[in-house]
Amino acid sequence: MKHRRIPRRRAAVAGAGIAALVAAGVTFQTANASEPTETSAVKTLSALAAGKLASTLDRDLGADAAGTYYDAQARSLVVNVLDEAAAEVVEEAGAKARIVEHSLAELKSARTTLRQDATIPGTAWVTDPATNKVVVTADRTVSAAEFKKLSQVVDGLGT
Question: How far apart are CA 151 and CA 159, in angstroms?
């Protein structure tokens, strides 16, 4: 086995280079440091945690809440709201806020109207929070006359 000695000059240069890199790393990390800004990040949540947060936000927002749903792909809670102030509350809590057109009261009213005026076998309706609309479906057992009646009721709703 052959041993080579590293000249002192080369060792000194290498040591100085390493010291310079360490000093530069420390300096550059703090060069642009400033007060941390408060940014509301959407939290990654389990379905159970999202349900608990949805209940809390629904209580806190009251009439400004317009439905919630769990985005399983993003693992986050999405809360439909009616204005910017409510959106800020939602985002501070760690959920994603969507400003929508229809309130829960309007959607519930539309479903009540459908129940009263268009209860036809072969039809169904559901509130879809992702689209903020009441989705109405009819299968092939619905006659043309019944479908026309259903269409008139739906057209009158506007949701």
Answer: 12
